[in-house]
Design a protein that fits this description.
The longest helix has 16 residues, at 182-197. The protein has seven helices and nine strands. The protein is 33% helix and 11% strand. α5 links the parallel β8 and β9. The chain is an alpha+beta fold. α2 (71-78) runs parallel beside α3.
């Protein structure tokens, strides 16, 4: 409340008139809100630049990106400016910056953290440890205030597992629909070896019962719908014409 809110887009610049449910829950729990961090234009990129606040850089190497779209959040954590941040995620906007900056990020299940605007995006915490993510999620998760809170409650059972040897782990390291870089695949394989040495039951052949290519095509349609809701009819026609020209 009272802070500039832009989504990185000059056309959407305004002053927030109220705190979101998630922010208010953190404040009520004793969090000290210091401000906001940078993000990509319209919260939609794998880097974090916009014409209002400029470019966010990776504190580990200023010549590289902190990722996006919640790149400012991950960069602030990696630089030691804060111990907890918030982000939004559809296709990696929490997870990509967390990876780029060497911090922890959690894309929550849809609806677990209330959002003032809900299409296919979800809110989630970023932190410098898994323990801090769990602490934040305990505060943030739950139905929004109002009648809906009567209909469901978030009561996840605590795990009884205490060792890696107690877990079953499915590994989906590569797929023809989404080829994985050799360096990434090698890193995943090292994790597999470490898990097996620790006694975990690792299955590299287990797969969900759906076609990844078909699901990705559906995801792209949902993503396009979610990201273009603010465009005028004229802007949509221009976007369609540009897309068609790229396919020729």
């Amino acid at each position: 409340e009272g802070l500039p809110t832009t989504l990185g887009n000059p056309k959407l610049r305004r002053i927030a008139q109220a705190n979101s449910v998630a922010v208010q829950r953190l404040i009520d729990a004793g969090a000290v809100l210091m401000g906001k961090t940078n993000l990509a234009l319209d919260c939609n990129d794998v880097q974090s630049y916009n014409s209002i606040y400029g470019i966010a850089r990776n504190p580990h190497d200023l010549s590289t990106t902190p990722g996006g779209s919640s790149g400012g959040s991950a960069a602030a954590l990696a630089a030691g400016l804060t111990g907890l941040e918030m982000g939004g995620d559809i296709g990696g906007s929490i997870r990509t910056p967390a990876h780029c900056c060497g911090v922890f990020g959690h894309k929550t299940t849809f609806g677990v953290i209330p959002a003032s605007y809900q299409d296919i995006v979800v809110k989630g915490p970023l932190a410098r440890s898994a323990e801090d993510l769990a602490l934040a999620l305990d505060i943030l998760a739950g139905p929004p205030p109002g009648p809906i809170a009567r209909g469901w409650h978030l009561e996840l059972p605590r795990t009884t597992k205490r060792r890696l040897a107690d877990f079953r782990v499915a590994v989906w390291a590569d797929d023809p629909a989404c080829p994985v870089d050799r360096d990434i695949a090698s890193a995943v394989q090292r994790v597999v070896i470490a898990l097996r040495k620790a006694g975990a039951l690792v299955d590299e052949a287990a797969r969900p019962d759906f076609d990844p290519a078909e699901v990705f095509d559906l995801y792209k349609q949902l993503l396009a719908s979610a990201e273009n809701t603010s465009l005028s009819v004229g802007e949509l026609r221009e976007a369609f014409a540009e897309a068609e020209s790229l396919q020729m």
